[in-house]
Structures are given as C-alpha cells and as structure tokens.
Write the structure tokens for this entry.
Amino acid sequence: MSAQVTLYTTRFCPYCVNAKRLLQHKGVDYREIPVDGDVDRRAEMAARSGRRTVPQIWIDDRHIGGFDELAALDRQGRLDPLLKLAP
C-alpha cells in the first residue's frame, strides 16, 4: 500500500509546481489542498505545520516541510522508502 501524500498549495507557487512535478515523476498520487484566498484552509495549514509558506507536505502523518525538504529527501535516497515505493 502506498503512502498518503497531502500538499497544501497555491496556484502560482513555483515550489508547489516543483513538488507536484517530483511526485508525478515518481508516479505518486497526492491530495492537493489549495489555499488560494481560503483563509480557513491557510489557517488549518499553519496550525498543522507551524509554517505559513507553501507548499506544506505530509507523507502519511509525517510533516515533511516544503519543496526544499522534499527534494533533499529525494537526493538522500530517503524519499522512496517514505513513499513506500518499491526499489
């Protein structure tokens, strides 16, 4: 069973686009929660993550952070195991 991935995003954020592109490249499905103009969703994201910037990414119940952290995990070879991808 693959991991559940959730991203809080905005439409024109280049880091959001890059995060989605990386996950798509790996064939990973994700749940995207847009926070454009949605004060309640943005507040929910900030409460969950402690951060106000997008994207904010979770793999299962683990908060990864933003795109920089996601890309670092990938470079270190630690992302695929979190995503439960076969080697």
In short: Residues 14-25 form the longest helix (12 residues). The radius of gyration is 12 Å. The CA atoms of residues 3 and 31 lie 11 Å apart.
